[in-house]
Amino acid sequence: xxxxxxxxxxxxxxxxxxxxxxxxxxxxxxxxxxxxxxxxxxxxxxxxxxxxxxxxxxxxxxxxxxxxxxxxxxxxxxxxxxxxxxxxxxxxxxxxxxxxxxxxxxxxxxxxxxxxxxxxxxxxxxxxxxxxxxxxxxxxxxxxxxxxxxxxxxxxxxxxxxxxxxxxxxxxxxxxxxxxxxxxxxxxxxxxxxxxxxxxxxxxxxxxxxxxxxxxxxxxxxxxxxxxxxxxxxxxxxxxxxxxxxxxxxxxxxxxxxxxxxxxxxxxxxxxxxxxxxxxxxxxxxxxxxxxxxxxxxxxxxxxxxxxxxxxxxxxxxxxxxxxxxxxxxxxxxxxxxxxxxxxxxxxxxxxxxxxxxxxxxxxxxxxxxxxxxxxxxxxxxxxxxxxxxxxxxxxxxxxxxxxxxxxxxxxxxxxxxxxxxxxxxxxx
Length: 429
Fold this sequence. Notes:
CATH topology of the largest domain: TIM Barrel
Number of helices: 12
Radius of gyration: 23 Å
Largest sheet: 8 strands, mixed
Shape: globular
CATH class of the largest domain: Alpha Beta
Oligomer: single chain
Order of helices and strands: HEEEEEEHEEHEHHEHEHEHEHHHEEEH
CATH superfamily of the largest domain: Metal-dependent hydrolases
Structural class: alpha/beta
Distance between the termini: 46 Å
Number of domains: 2
């Protein structure tokens, strides 16, 4: 007990000592600016060489090879650089977990199986030092999601430059997260003497029946109720499709069970994980179900799958016409490898612009924010980054400037601070 308490105290001291107090959120844009001579990757498949982008009041005003800027406009020469939409990290615990092994810094999981009224956004910590390490890789927005139980609560989309969670909220409570039981029989492990043997498939199907019962009751509650039920109230947006149902499932069996929710309730559904989604791509397309591929850099789910199947899945979904996004859920990289995961997909069947769309416009469509961001188009928020090289290639990716709603945000982080510190120490700066 003393050791546990001491580890928490030391972790707290470490976090305080390594905080980034000098990295401030950028102020609101007040002066128009014009980016000139850039190769613009719009995010919708187009590439515009030697083009200009005019930004005013946080919005993209004009995208063209020749732009007439109003008086007082600041000019940014981007000759030799590439302009990309800000990347979007989907389904992450960014800002909810600081040090995974220190429980005091975790606020991602609620107790109990049924937590529809839990809102991840109110627990989002804008002072997390992890956030600033994502921006230099071009990641400007993220969907923060809760875990725990089979109905974990509501996720929200945040922009990664804010003083508090209210400022960060880009689209609050955009959907609810359901975790499918495995529905796979596993080798029998240790069982206490006298304990009954549990059939995991039967147990899983009973859990699915409980899920359906909850959603049926919530639907009936909307039609007529005399007392307020916070759980039923929370999920009403699913029935009018103002919110989405994010179902965490990887195997074909799990996804087929999940499709029953679409058929019975008409939910707007997104499969999260989807490692075997390529096997039922046509069925997903028919039911208008999108997919978030959680971790392409992994071994295949089944032993008889091709060893490079996770790399090929995005191209197979693209060919089938399934809306999909690529993610990075690796606990070691904490989202930083998002552009490089998309780059791998570009080496296995996708074009580079299709791979870019998978982490920009496609992700925005899945999260319900495509009317505001995800591509460099007139009328959308000025969320984009400048790179001297290919953003999908870890060898040449070099973000020099980043903008969120027209605000030039700092690219400094604990990583860059340590880099500068030791360059100075050894006379290399």
